[in-house]
Amino acid sequence: MSQITDILNHNKAFVENEEYQSFISGKFPDKKVVVLTCMDTRLTELLPRAMNLRNGDAKILKTAGAVISSPFGSIMRSVLVALYELQAEEVIVVGHHECGMASLNADRIMGKMRDRGISEEVLSTLDHAGVQLGQWFKGVENETEGVMHSVNMIANHPLMPPGVPVHGMLIDPKTGALELISDGYERLNN
Hints:
Helices cover 40% and strands 16% of the residues. The chain is an alpha/beta fold.
């Protein structure tokens, strides 16, 4: 059986047994926060539990390394929508120790693209069109730098409403221990 068949079979039973009842909530975050975190699979259930977030408490956005690569890309747009339309009042960027973005190598990724059938012609065309894949796939020096990059991009964004605290944290993907590396309240007061 394929993964999609397994998912659909499970979903049919999930709906028929009304297991969704415990997840019903409104569209506005009860704790009025938007959390930007990494897509690492270890954080799927660990991060909300470690932060005491239940379904409906926060808007949770995920991207590789919790890194915002463009000030006008979809992640930043989602942060702004959460703040302007969905009643979020704070932003928390949560990176994690042992993040793959800290060891990401653009040349290695492009080699894997070639191995999986992406032609030199496509890569060359993108290069000539101004798409700098080496920069686009560039990792971060370390996890703290990645979090601070996103904190600074959000906090200094020209469309960011004044007075919104933007915090930065790291989580241990084994224990769930959180470390505050940038206090958004302090930042607003300075």
